[in-house]
Amino acid sequence: MTERPIRVFSEIGKLKKVVLHRPGKELENLVPDFLPRLLFDDIPFLEDAQKEHDAFADALRENGVEVLYLERLVADAIDAADVKEQFVDEWLAETGVQSDAMLKALKDHLLAIPDTFDMVLKTMEGFRKTEMPDVSGTSLSDKYETDYPFIVDPMPNLYFTRDPFATMAHGVTLNHMYSETRNRETLYGKYIFDHHPEYGNGAVDRFYNREEATRIEGGDELVLSKDVLAVGISQRTDARSIEKLANRLFKETGFKRILAFLIGENRKFMHLDTVFTMVDYDKFTIHPEIEGGLKVWDLTPNEDGTVNIVEREDQLDVILQDALGVEKVHLIRCGGGDPVAAAREQWNDGSNTLTIAPGVVVVYDRNTVTNKVLEEYGLKLIKLRGSELVRGRGGPRCMSMPLYREDI
Ligand SMILES: NC(=O)NCCC[C@H](N)C(=O)O
Questions:
Q1: Is 398 part of the annotated catalytic residue set?
Q2: Which CATH class is domain 45-70+156-405?
Q3: What is the DSSP letter of 26?
Q4: β pairing state of 127-128 and 150-152
Q5: For the chain, which terminal residue's Cβ has fewer other Cβ atoms within 10 angstroms, N or C?
Q6: Cα–ligand 1 centroid distance for 398 (angstroms)
Q7: Could you list the pLDDT tens digit for every one of the 408 residues in the chain?
Q8: Which ligand 1 atom minimizes the distance to the CA of 394?
Q9: Ligand 1 in contact with 398 (CB < 6 A)?
Q10: Which family is it part of (predicted)?
Q11: Closest atom of ligand 1 relative to the 349 alpha carbon
Q12: Is residue 274 lining ligand 1, measured as CB closer than 6 Å?
């Protein structure tokens, strides 16, 4: 049997292949009045954000990881299946543009871009009003004018490739996102998994679809082992989505348990991976602020195919020891447990680490208190500058989607 293109059975197995998105001109379409709606807290300086991101990609390559770019995968998928016009039509249908004349002008503009790669980048960047001619249509929507400076919004969160789709076993969840701005991002995943020569046409199992009504985002989906997932019930992921996922995974894969972590609905920690990541066989980062209110449910398959759901009364370390079959689990507290350092460093993604091999972890250099504690636990840190990247509220795990990890 041929090797499946996706293989992810842990959070910590040696990372061999990953998807990133190099931040592009979409960041130059962030303006102060619309930051909250686009889920940003500040405006990064693109040139420096790209340098920081290139350093991230280089660090991964130096450690034996093949880096694939989302924008290249999408362009190759579109070209391979010769579906440029279909892609543009689907993209347009999700822009919210109502004027027929403007829809036609946008379509003509995109299809006139000779290189599909550049066309894909343009769909990510968005369109300012100033860059399109006035269209003189006849319908009411053609004549109607607002002060809004964009015809089509940018998609500034694309460099957080962790969220719109998530890999596990030999497949993906193609997610239905919490916000309109991020839901548009999932179209790129759809084209990759429908049409890419290596990742499309059924080569990758599909455990969730973007058309589903309930929400789930990749930052909430953690593959703890070949048997166990942890999934956050959060601002971004509904409990119902986790039940659906459990039903499918228990039937279609070897996963035997999902731990559903209730972390509450909060901008500061919108996904489970902003407060909890796995860094070694027996070590996890954790933000102390979630520990008090954390509830964990255990989802396991019943013999009749239904899902058994039990609330766990144990402490988190005991739940993890039991789920992973290790003697002692260490929970490494963000900011060393100091409430001020923890809050400051979690905000800057101190607990959002990317593990590229057991005990080898990519972090932002700025989280000095947390990093020192991680080193005291014997972890090897690869430190990145992230002053611009962090303004979008995401760290190394958020900015990466593993496609292939060696089994542990
Ligand atoms: N997994 C993650 O936590 N991703 C970070 C996403 C940040 C982005 N600005 C968002 O709010 O969706």
A1: yes
A2: alpha beta
A3: G
A4: antiparallel
A5: N
A6: 6
A7: 578 999 999 999 999 999 999 999 999 999 999 999 999 999 999 999 999 999 999 999 999 999 999 999 999 999 999 999 999 999 999 999 999 999 999 999 999 999 999 999 999 999 999 999 888 666 776 666 678 999 999 999 999 999 999 999 999 999 999 999 999 999 999 999 999 999 999 999 999 999 999 999 999 999 999 999 999 999 999 999 999 999 999 999 999 999 999 999 989 999 999 999 999 999 999 999 999 889 999 999 999 999 999 999 999 999 999 999 999 999 999 999 899 999 999 999 999 999 999 999 999 999 999 999 999 999 999 999 999 999 999 999 999 999 999 999
A8: 5
A9: yes
A10: Belongs to the arginine deiminase family.
A11: 3
A12: yes
CATH architecture for residues 71-152: Orthogonal Bundle (1.10)
For the chain, give every domain's residue range: 45-70+156-405, 71-152
Find the catalytic residue in 15, 19, 228, 398: 398
Question: Which of 271, 276, 389 for mutating ligand 1's site (highest number of atoms within 8 Å of CB)?
Answer: 271
Q: Ligand 1 pocket, 273 CB below 6 A?
A: yes
User: 4-43 b/e with 16+ CB inside 10 Å = b?
Assistant: ebbbbbbbbbbbebbbbbbbbebbbbbeeebeeebbbeeb
With a 6 Å cutoff on the Cβ, whether 175 touches ligand 1 is no
Phi, psi for residue 218 in degrees, rounded to 5: -60, -30
Inter-axis angle of helices 116-125 and 70-81, to 10 degrees?
Answer: 130
